[in-house]
Inverse folding.
């Protein structure tokens, strides 16, 4: 059953790339991140306060861990994703997020002291070469926007991998919903002063109804259901078996991007994407 929910999470994440790209054209990244996180944090707060989760007591030694997860969740991962996708395509963003298993491998070795073998190292190299090909396709253009967006998205993927690895023991201890919710609440509160300036200066009357629906999807669909399903799966099976599902995002997002935006699936994207997927599979086999 966990793999069914992971498939749903992959679909949610793939649509997130498409919808975020459309909405960020109408709402600046600072404000969009605030709205997305604010909606999720508010809903999580209500549910936790009026449910059994309110009785959970966090150990003093875990308070800083929740704080770190909050920072990784919103100010780092979500903002990097929203800002980056403003300058690149949904297909590129999903491809770069397919490197999450690679970053998870690196962080597991650093923080969890897991062993690294030849296949895992080869997989890391192949994936970085693949992403490099995608970067190079547009990175030589005069405006450099695609390159900038790709680099920012890559940092977002790194933060997401770290969020996944560090959250595993917390999910086992406190449960997926509680950890997801508390991290989102903390992250949204930390981000509040960062996004508030753009928020108060935005003309909300100029924003279309479709864009508002997109914000709701990012806040509820992605940041509540998507994030919860991710931690739910991490609490049930090995993290490495969870993060491999990010490799379904590039294919699904590329198809959706072609249908909705008319984004072409180019030869460099296909070559780079193949290398990324091959690299990640090698990591899993290792």
């Amino acid at each position: 059953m966990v793999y069914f929910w992971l498939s749903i999470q992959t679909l949610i994440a793939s649509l997130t790339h498409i919808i975020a790209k459309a909405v960020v054209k109408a709402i600046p990244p600072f404000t969009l991140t605030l709205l997305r996180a604010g909606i999720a944090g508010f809903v999580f707060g209500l549910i936790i306060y009026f449910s059994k989760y309110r009785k959970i007591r966090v150990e003093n030694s875990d308070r800083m861990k929740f704080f770190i997860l909050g920072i990784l969740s919103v100010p780092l991962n979500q903002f990097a994703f929203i800002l980056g996708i403003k300058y690149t395509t949904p297909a590129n963003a999903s491809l770069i997020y397919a490197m999450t298993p690679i970053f998870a491998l690196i962080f597991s070795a650093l923080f969890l002291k897991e062993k690294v073998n030849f296949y895992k190292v080869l997989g890391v190299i192949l994936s970085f070469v693949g992403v490099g090909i995608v970067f190079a396709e547009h990175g030589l253009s005069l405006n450099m926007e695609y390159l900038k967006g790709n680099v920012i998205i890559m940092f977002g993927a790194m933060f997401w991998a770290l969020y996944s690895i560090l959250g595993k023991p917390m999910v086992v201890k406190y449960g997926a919903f509680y950890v997801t919710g508390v991290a989102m609440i903390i992250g949204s509160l930390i981000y509040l002063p960062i996004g508030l300036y753009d928020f108060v200066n935005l003309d909300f009357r100029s924003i279309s109804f479709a864009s508002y629906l997109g914000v709701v999807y990012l806040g509820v669909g992605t940041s509540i259901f998507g994030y919860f399903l991710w931690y739910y799966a991490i609490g049930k099976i090995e993290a490495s078996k969870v993060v491999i599902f990010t490799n379904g995002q590039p294919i699904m997002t590329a198809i959706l991007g072609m249908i909705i935006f008319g984004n072409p699936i180019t030869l460099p994207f296909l070559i780079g994407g193949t290398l990324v997927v091959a690299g990640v599979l090698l990591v899993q086999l290792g």
